[in-house]
Inverse folding.
């Protein structure tokens, strides 16, 4: 292992609180020791693949063909020059220049490796007094207000917009501030009113137990917007539970149940005259870093379980445990939406329901739509970058 | 264990080739022995949960509250009557009646348990002579033609429609025979033409290596429709590879590489002025039954890998192996679309690309849109049921 020592240039050390102290080559990688004592490893193949010249100058897309070099590509020389690591490669006579700030940002080993844990903050019933609220006019006219409200929604999975005009298109106009809408078999928008021949329980005046929407879809919709146009009926309070909070508790207390609900998929189905939409899903979905991504819980759409015989009984016990926890009043918030209010929540995290209502005294009418997570997260990133530039 | 013997009624045995021969109760389940010698187990809790009365008569949704009974619910009596299993339960004085044909259909244990393996059929370069083709007029006017063409597309992941009118809306009109379109950041439809300031490589005249679209989305689009409005340029042949076939080979030959590509997620990203859409995904996605659901492969959208340091090198080796296999000419079909032809393929299974073209002699213009898998599969089921009734 060869080691190259470096001293910071006075220029560079003035604007950052770290710099590359030394560089050494090992078999397949370069070892970087930083001025703060931390160590990071960069594999040769990774460095070559991520040479700044590998990306298209306009589109930012990766253009380098990884197979144009061998897996054994390695540096012929490594030089440090004013905060830049310069590598002359063993193939194609290529030279790569890496800024040390870039190397620091994208390091993937040791104590500096990127933290992939979730930034979501879970909540229980006390959240009723802390739900983020903003006014529709702010959301429509101010990017900063939109960004701050969306950041809170991202963190907590539930937020309110008030001051909504009593117009059917208001929900679309507001949601479009984020991005285009996610269409489903219920349309681009949907009206939650009591109907005489309902195609599902939402369109009755019955109570609706806590659930996530469209668990029968390959990917259930992300953020749900529910604009209250009128709510003069008796009852009809909206109920919410943070699925993330409930799952965190289950994971802690009953890891074996949690595992079963992650590992085995159950069938979900919605069918009417025109549709028969089915999908198997695990109730709990983790990302590749072990974070809880999603809960799919909809007792009404749960189809006939077809788990392996040896798992069926244990699964039912785990599933019942989750059902019981979801009914625990300590998790639940309940609020009666008024005309002009809109509730927005992450349908794949926060369960929603409603109390039964009697609409003989007055109508209950919510109008809804969805925006998916990819679009939501993208908008949040772009707004963040734009606002950072303004400052 | 109590056992109940039964003889078939002459009526019932006339229309089915099996009947319940005997029923026995064990601790948590009922054991059914069938006339053909097969044995199935039905857990008490599963039977109670799936009592025919548990489902809403209009909407088909599950209405029974599983927590309204205990996990120890069991039969007080089990009776067989003319092909119906009648259970009197230990709780709520409830009685359930199960048709034996239903019990047979939904059994989940033993040799009769549902087969969850995929019905897809993978292909190599010889498929060029067997691509399913139908005419647009048939697809528009005949449900049977649509059903048969969709069935072939479902099985092979690639099919052609010819006789398309040279109109921009023809692709939408045809795709709408299946269902509504999946919108993306590129719009509801998109035009693949060479542009002066491209936002991605598709909109140049460069060759486009094999890829799946929008791997950076939380769920990439399902079926892709590409209608050729003109292709008078030199070159510009479309290329396709069945990712399923390639992955089957990888799984067989290099199971450890296959596992790495399933287990670890890599980052994908598309960004322009208005968007920054990012997602981590494993390149290979299995369903809970071990079937290959999906390949996400897009070298252009692959962002800077942030795998754990100890995995990075091995992952690169596995990834390069896949890259190499995807380039193997034995897998590839190449066809030059003519005006009036439309190719349709499962974007999450079949990779597509194109050869470079020179459009100084004539324009190359493809117009595209997407329909997602949930909608496609639903339409196929509903058409199948409708056509079965017609017969």
């Amino acid at each position: 292992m060869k080691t190259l020592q470096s001293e910071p240039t006075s220029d560079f050390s003035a604007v950052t609180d770290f710099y590359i102290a030394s560089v050494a080559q090992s078999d397949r990688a370069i070892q970087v020791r930083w001025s703060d004592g931390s160590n990071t490893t960069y594999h040769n193949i990774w460095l070559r693949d991520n040479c700044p010249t590998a990306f298209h100058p306009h589109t930012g897309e990766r253009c380098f063909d990884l197979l144009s070099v061998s897996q054994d590509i390695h540096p012929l020389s490594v030089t440090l020059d004013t905060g830049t690591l310069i590598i002359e490669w063993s193939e194609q006579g290529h030279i790569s220049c890496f800024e040390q700030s870039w190397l620091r940002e994208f390091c993937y080993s040791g104590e500096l490796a990127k933290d992939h844990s979730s930034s979501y903050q879970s909540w229980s019933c006390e959240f009723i007094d802390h739900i983020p609220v903003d006014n529709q006019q702010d959301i429509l006219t101010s990017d900063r207000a939109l960004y701050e409200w969306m950041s809170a929604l991202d963190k907590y999975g539930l937020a309110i917009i008030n001051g909504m005009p009593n117009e059917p298109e208001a929900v679309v106009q507001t949601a479009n501030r984020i991005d285009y809408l996610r269409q489903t078999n219920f349309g681009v928008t949907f009206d939650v009113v009591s109907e005489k021949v309902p195609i599902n329980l939402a369109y009755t005046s019955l109570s609706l137990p806590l659930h996530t929407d469209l668990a029968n879809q390959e990917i259930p919709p992300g953020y749900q917007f529910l604009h209250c146009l009128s709510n003069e009926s008796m009852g009809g309070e909206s109920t919410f539970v943070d699925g993330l909070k409930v799952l965190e508790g289950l994971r802690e207390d009953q890891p074996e149940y949690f595992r079963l609900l992650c590992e085995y998929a159950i069938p979900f189905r919605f069918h009417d005259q025109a549709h028969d939409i089915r999908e198997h899903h695990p109730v709990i979905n983790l990302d590749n870093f072990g974070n809880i991504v999603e809960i799919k819980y909809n007792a009404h759409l749960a189809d006939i379980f077809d788990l392996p015989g040896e798992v069926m009984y244990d699964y039912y016990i785990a599933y019942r445990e989750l059902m019981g926890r979801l009914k625990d009043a300590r998790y639940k918030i309940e609020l009666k939406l008024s005309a002009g209010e809109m509730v927005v929540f992450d349908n794949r995290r926060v369960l929603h329901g409603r109390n039964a209502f009697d609409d003989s005294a007055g109508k209950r009418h919510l109008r809804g739509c969805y925006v998916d997570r990819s679009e939501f997260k993208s908008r949040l990133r772009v707004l963040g970058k734009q606002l950072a530039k303004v400052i």
In short: The domain at 2-112 of chain B is CATH 3.30.2020.30 (NE0471 N-terminal domain-like).
